[in-house]
Structures are given as structure tokens and as C-alpha cells.
Amino acid sequence: MELPNTVEGLVHVNTLRDDYYTFDQDAYELIGDVTHKVFALGQKVRVRVADADTMLKTVDFVLGRGSRVVIRSYCSFCDQKHALRCIETTL
Question: How far is the C-alpha of 43 from the C-alpha of 20, rounded, in Å?
């Protein structure tokens, strides 16, 4: 996670509690097993600060309201992943 003011931090996978997410190494994506939500490397999301440690110089983020998330599903005809719709998180 990198903010425009050069602050860098992390959104921990264990804070994504709405589903179990599997990492797709080829596409660099986290994909929800049930919801089919997709979080991709480089995707812009809204965050809020969850914790900051001045000694370790780390910042932890959680997803904020209004983050755009892509929902994908497998096509029954071609067995490829297609975007079904975009939703906004309501965390």
C-alpha cells in the first residue's frame, strides 16, 4: 500500500474477514472463494489507518468504505474468468 504522500504500509490479509481469499500467483490477485471478490496488485483502494508503530516505523491499514472491488466468476461456456460487476465495499 502506497499513499500519494509516499507513506507506505500494509493491508493484512487477515483483515479481509468477509471471505477466505486464495492467492493467484500468476495474476498477483487475491480471489474470494465464496464472494469472488478480486484484489489485484496495483489496484487502487480506499484505506484507513489501523495501527502505526513509530519504533518499527510501520503502518497497518484496513480497507475503507467506498473501495471499488471487482466480482468475477467462471463462464460456463469458455471456462474463463469474467468480471460480473463492480461493487463498493461497505466496511
Answer: 19
